[in-house]
Amino acid sequence: MAGEMADNVILVGFMGAGKSSVGRILATRLGRCFVETDEMITATEGRPIPEIFAEKGEAHFRALEDEAVRLLALKRGDVIATGGGLPCGAGRAEALRAIGTVVWLSGDFGALYERALRGGDRPMLSGKTPEQAEALYAARRPFYAKADLTVDTTGLIPDQVAAEVLKALRGRARPPRLWPPHPTLSPSGGEGPSS
Ligand code: S3P
Questions:
Q1: Which of 5, 38, 145, 156 sees the fewest Cβ atoms within 10 Å?
Q2: How far apart are CA 44 and CA 153, in angstroms?
Q3: 151 φ/ψ angles, rounded to the nearest 5 degrees
Q4: Residue 43 C-alpha to ligand 1 middle, in angstroms?
Q5: Residue with CA nearest ligand 1 atom 3
Q6: Range 81-87 average pLDDT
Q7: What's 83's DSSP letter?
Q8: Where are the alpha helices (DSSP H) in 73-129?
Q9: Nearest CA to ligand 1 atom 11
């Protein structure tokens, strides 16, 4: 159990699932570093994601995600939030599972969509009807479902989701891939200085 928790924790899910907010909370509670693939990409490209989509197109953005996944393989013990489309390319879900424990933040489409619309500029939703966005979610669900763990975020605030993720991680037995375990992760230990 402790070894499991010393691994990278990778959050996947549709836009609006709260991957970034939950990831930040988890990282703080676990005393880990927090990494976002979207952030890695904007830092490399030197411009925001909507501009990358507008100027170079989605295919270019997906190629940048491939590069981000390659870099993620170097991470140890981090909490990683991925972009909503990242696990949905060929071989991506498998690549993520090789890098850490993958957690799908799932939820009812309506709640995710509402949050995604409120949360700023998302090129994959612009120009789409709610029905088209829902079809995109349906098409992506089988990829998200390849995650090691699923936490339903419906009706929960990020703090509660983070608590559910921690519970799910602790309840999961998998042979350790990193050793020694992080000191805050022993079954009797706390969750770090903030808890
Ligand atoms: C995308 C989701 C975004 C970002 C990009 C593409 C997608 O991340 O990676 O706009 O294809 O669903 P969030 O899930 O954080 O919004």
A1: 145
A2: 31
A3: -125, 125
A4: 15
A5: 83
A6: 98
A7: P
A8: 92-99, 109-118
A9: 85
